[in-house]
Design a protein that fits this description.
Tachylectin-2, Chain A, four-stranded antiparallel sheet, Kelch-typ_b-propeller
Length: about 220
């Protein structure tokens, strides 16, 4: 791990004795920094946390679940969410925790499938999940309102050969938050570009349409 103080990044330091064969996920929850990661020699999803940035807890796995890709973490409505791709299938699964120790799930998304790990972000009181398609390079999104996930909605004209990144931020000249996606280009290792919006009207219209589709 490395940390940034606003000027420079610290030297790399090993986190515990943990190893991983995929990228980790981070989230701040209840005053602690949580990290979720796929095992190095197994498909388990392991979790560890730190209160001071130096000492990490042991890393128990999520119960009864494995993954073949990087997990994603986010905090929504006072719960810690972890979304993963399955280990032996391309389905998406989600888990929740109210304390970072005990977990509910996995619960399976209805009809949402991905070839890569997903990205999560909270925007306008909903938890958004963005992922690459299972059999194509299209990008898809779904939103959770605290009760149900919407049906998958394609991100028009945007394709990626890898998993996307998702974040909420406000431009220096903006007046409201934006939901930004950064992803690799389709079929070209060097091609990458981003998409952002400072207006959720398009998202809300697509979500209304998606509400008619089967969802978890």
């Amino acid at each position: 791990m490395t940390s940034f103080d606003g000027t420079r990044w610290s030297p790399d330091a090993q986190v515990h004795d943990a190893g991983s064969s995929a990228g980790p996920a981070l989230a701040v929850f209840n005053g602690k920094l949580f990290m979720a990661f796929k095992g190095n020699q197994d498909a388990s999803v392991w979790l560890t946390s730190t209160a001071d940035g130096s000492t990490w807890t042991g890393h128990p796995p999520l119960p009864a679940h494995g993954t073949s890709a990087s997990p994603a973490l986010a905090v929504y409505n006072n719960k810690l969410y972890c979304v993963t791709r399955g280990n032996t299938d391309a389905s998406l699964y989600w888990h929740t925790s109210t304390n970072g120790t005990t977990w509910n799930g996995p619960s399976k998304f209805a009809g949402h499938r991905s070839r890569e790990g997903v990205s999560l972000a909270v925007f306008q009181n909903k938890l958004y999940c963005l992922h690459r398609g299972h059999l194509d390079q299209d990008l898809w999104w779904t939103a959770f309102d605290g009760t149900r996930w919407s049906g998958d909605v394609p991100l028009p004209a945007h394709r990626s050969a890898g998993g996307p990144g998702l974040i909420v931020y406000r431009d220096k000249d903006g007046t409201r938050n934006q939901l930004m996606v950064v992803h690799r280009g389709a079929g070209e290792r060097s091609a990458a570009f981003d998409i952002n919006t400072d207006d959720a009207d398009e998202l809300q219209a697509a979500e209304a349409q998606a509400a008619e589709e089967p969802a978890a």
